Amino acid sequence: MTSEAVRRVQSGNPWEETFGFARAVAAGDRVVVAGTTAFKGDVLYGEGDPYEQAKVAFATALDAVGEFGLGAESVIRTRVYLAHSRDVDAVGRAHKELFDAVRPVTTLLVVQGFIDSRVLVSVELEAFRGQ
């Protein structure tokens, strides 16, 4: 794949610069979005509320696919990482509100934790931009 076929988008998140990654990468007919939390700059939105954190994280991830002219209807895969299994229902509700009509394949994982202990949810997206 030539470098012209790959486009990267930065969101301004400080971790992108620290670790050397992009928020989203388009390659061929796919756009993939990195793990996204409810942080915007130094502010964590929905602290203590997994539903709100999921909504903010998904909105940020969808903004990233929006940079390529895509929206929720183009999402074919989501991955959801949770700090606590008790949050499954709340995060599932947020996912359903955004993707019920789309029905992407979804993986839900409970992880040991995140870099910042206040983070309850991290999400990844993959979107299709083909015909």
Automatic annotation (TrEMBL):
Q: Which InterPro entries match?
A: RutC-like_sf, YjgF/YER057c/UK114
SUPFAM superfamilies of this UniProt entry? YjgF-like
Q: Which Pfam families match?
A: Ribonuc_L-PSP (PF01042)
Question: Where is coiled-coil annotated?
Answer: none
Q: Which domain of life is it from?
A: Bacteria
PANTHER family membership: BLR7761 PROTEIN, YJGH FAMILY PROTEIN
Q: What is this protein called?
A: RidA family protein
Q: Which organism is it from?
A: Streptomyces griseoviridis
